[in-house]
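=== RUN LOG ===
request id: a7f3
mode: sequence -> structure
chains: 1
length: 477
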Amino acid sequence: MRAKVTVCGLGPGGAAQITEQTVELLQNSEKVFLRTSRHPTATLAGKASSFDELYENASTFDEVYREIAERLANEAHRHGHVVYAVPGSPLVLERSVRFLRDREDIDLEVLPAISFLDQVWTSLQVDPVVDSVRLVDGLEFATAAAGQTGPLLVAHVHSQWVLSDIKLALDAGPEQRVLVLQRLGTDEEQILDLSWPELDREVVADHLTSLYLPSVVEPVGYELARSVEVMARLRAECPWDRKQDHKSLRKYLIEEAYEVLEAIDNVAESIGDGEHDSDSEPAASSPATVAMPSIKEVGSYQDLEEELGDLWFQILFHSQLASEQGHFTVADVARGMSEKMIRRHPHVFDEGPNAIDGSTPENWDRLKQKEKQRSSALDGIPRELPALALSQKMLGRGAKHVESPDLGHVGSRLNDTFGSELATDAGVGTILLALVELARSQGIDTELALRRAVAGAGDRFRLAESAGSLNRSWVLG
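=== RESULT ===
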């Protein structure tokens, strides 16, 4: 006999909303498990075990639901049959049931139940089909509701941090109305009609809280979508923007990137000058302990915001040009980035036993080399980097595969001349400046000279790499 898990629903709130089939199952089954005991009708399961402790110890909800599915399967193999009771209906927004469906080692039976949706439509007097209501998971609001104009029903708004994340995802003013639905179907049912700014100030969220937006004034992600529209209009109506191409924009992209770097340095400097300790973080439960930022810090972050906007404009510009030529859109760029990050972070998005920890530089390079089908560890380093940055990037990449380079007689002379100064920023800077002056006095282009040396070292690395004979002498030959 195969192991079996039967999943039933506890309904949206009141005991009258549980089916007779479920009540009988809960009362007559030997092994019953609750996803959570924090539900008005959980008491009908008697002394059933719950998985409440998993919510307190796990770092993500997916981790909780994967573990629940794993434990239920183990219990089913041990006892032959177990019952699993979830709030509402097991067919509506139940991730743990999704993970159970994916298992091939158990038989899964899912019983129909009244969901919180039925109670919502009754309390609001709304026909979800006629009104085209979109159901959104509050834990995924920023992405699931992107571009939607409503009406929206937002579920799983079970805590203040979820409420705050939802509020931040939709940058709306008092004209945006929201109905807060709490404990529907119970004696404590209430519906609050609030403006969007009041949302996380007037509401204490719990496990029976959801939101209803009758009409979204500005869709989630509105400003991002607006920036794309602005770029398209500039290309259509501005003479200067119309005549640009990828090559003509190249210098602006480089300039904007350097301005972002300067803004980042200014932020780091302003934080260092502030009164708060940047190495410590306040407790999550006591935000009042966070020190107020200095005027200099606020100004630095405003500059960084502006410079990132200028860099974003360059990304939009190149994406718009590619879109006009039928190659890709900015949405393709965003999608490709998301998919790439998911592939390269299997330790985050794939919790299987064979997941590679991409958080280490070595494994990150392994993942990239496999994905890009690169033949050398040096492949993928941008050739257009300034020579000094290019050399540092190449040396760093090579050092992950072979011992630190043997600098030979050059290293010995530097040590004899400069001694301990070699280990300081100021000392290295002085040496580099002296070398630049030496090259200038001899009419040598330092950029070109260093590029030639980097190219030669790269050729030696690849040759030794392909022959399986990498050694410390690849840098200087």
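=== NOTES ===
The radius of gyration is 30 Å.
Residues 274-290 have pLDDT under 50 and may be disordered.
=== END ===
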